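Hey, can you fold this one?
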Amino acid sequence: MVARMKPSVPILCYRNVSPVCGVAPAEFRAHLEWLAAHAWHSVPLDLVIDYVKGGPEPPPYSYALTFDDCYLDNWVHAAPILRDLGVRASFGVATAYLHDGPRRPDAATPDADLRELPVARDAWDRAVERNDPTAFMNRTELRALVAEQGHDLFGHTHTHQACFRSDRPIDQMPGDIHPGVRGIYLEMRDGLPMYPSGSAYAHDGFWPASSDLLANRLVARTTQERIEFCLNEFNLCRERLEELVGRPSRAMSWPWGEYDAVAIEAALLAGYEAALSMDCGANRPGTPPFALRRVRMQGGVGTRELGRWLCIASHPLLAGLFRKVYRRPRI
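Sure. Predicted structure:
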């Protein structure tokens, strides 16, 4: 008799839930209502980590729900819907942008005027260029998500830093510059050359040779320098999350879904047990815990499409057929 194949547990990945960017609140609610109507139920990310490492099998129709970046709109628009429908989620925090402040109103607050709250599309520019992290959730809001609403946090590195993958310039309009690039140059200004960018955790990369704002020359970083950078970032992130909620974080997520063996080794040394990727495929015993697969959720995804994706992601054979793993881009 052929042994039953262990099922795969889908992990959904959202970022923005907002009327102005990302997934609209009505779309998000429709997703969660469809899941509930079709017997799907959310489980803690820790349960999925235990499962892929050989632990107990989750109940049928289990899925995990994750948010990267911890934008304020997760608090304003997503959290009230999660609370209303009794769905548990995990939120990824880039800890350099933790800040103090009062609990801001959410969409369930009577007569709340949400128009003046910062939105996710401006979050990185505000945080990096203006030292204003208020488009991300603050410590008060994050503690409330955990202590009052039963959600979890995971690491999303400290600074979510990009690097230049090549020293060959490319043509790029200012509006097309990835927000992560704004952390490479000390100051963004017209006329700066642009280069192919990527995760500073997955590539040794190239960096400005000096802090001179007029200097455009790049120098290559060594792998040892990258290891030290990763260790500092991952340790800072894990320590600050533990300070925030009183317990260590077991998981992190790779910025832009990029990773390699060096980054994984650094994450292990920093005390993490797993990492979330943007790979497609199965989450079942034997899945590499530092490359957990996720289903990317975007605006415009209807419930029929969500159902198809879950059918694939939850089936051990179909998920394997549609497997897609991050590969380092050729320069």
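The chain has one domain: 11-160+222-321. Let me know if you want another pass with a different chain boundary.
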